[in-house]
């Protein structure tokens, strides 16, 4: 990574900016750098082809700057996947987690989506029953696997 990108990352980490703006800033400069190097290389190769320059002068490597840009794109992809997973988990959590049960200490703050204590107990009992069913199914499956392993070992 070049020094400008590192400086920009440090600056953006210190200053709280909108995440979309951060992405624009962090990915605009590397893309601009890739285009600048490509332009310089194209101009250099054209000058060599036209006989204006010799090939002794060095130019920046395009493949290296392109790899840096692709590395940043991979990081962005991972961040987007993580954000999607977090959003999915949050949505699932909101859908499957229980609503609030009003407490006796604050009866004036009863919310419309809250459930009664009896409803809450019923839901918890069904969750415990479901967890027991899953546990029993896994236990049965592990016994079957262990039984097959022993019977195959005997033959």
From TrEMBL:
Q: Which UniProt keywords apply?
A: Nucleus, Transcription, Transcription regulation
Look up keyword Isomerase and say if it applies.
Answer: no
Q: Where in the cell is it found?
A: Nucleus
Provide a Gene Ontology MF annotation, just one: transcription coregulator activity
One Gene Ontology term of the biological-process aspect is: regulation of transcription by RNA polymerase II
Q: Where does the signal sequence lie?
A: none
GO CC term (a single one): mediator complex
Domain of life the protein comes from:
Eukaryota
Where the protein is mainly located, per its record?
nucleus
The record's listing under InterPro entries reads:
Mediator_Med29_met
Keyword Nucleus assigned: yes
Q: Which PANTHER family match?
A: MEDIATOR OF RNA POLYMERASE II TRANSCRIPTION SUBUNIT 29
Question: Which protein family is it in?
Answer: Belongs to the Mediator complex subunit 29 family.
Q: What is this protein called?
A: Mediator of RNA polymerase II transcription subunit 29
């Amino acid at each position: 990574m070049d020094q400008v990108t590192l400086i920009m990352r440090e600056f953006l980490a210190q200053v709280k900016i909108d995440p979309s703006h951060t992405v624009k800033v962090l990915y605009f400069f590397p893309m601009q750098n890739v285009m600048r190097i490509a332009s310089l290389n194209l101009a250099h190769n054209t000058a060599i082809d036209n006989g204006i320059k010799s090939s002794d002068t060095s130019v920046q490597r395009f493949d290296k700057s392109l790899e840096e840009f692709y590395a940043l794109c991979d990081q962005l992809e991972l961040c987007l996947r993580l954000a999607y997973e977090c959003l999915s988990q949050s949505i699932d959590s909101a859908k499957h987690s229980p609503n609030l049960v009003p407490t006796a200490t604050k009866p004036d703050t009863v919310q419309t989506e809250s459930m009664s204590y009896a409803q809450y107990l019923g839901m918890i009992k069904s969750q415990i029953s479901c967890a027991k069913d899953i546990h029993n199914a896994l236990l049965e499956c592990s016994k079957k696997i262990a039984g097959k392993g022993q019977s195959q070992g005997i033959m």
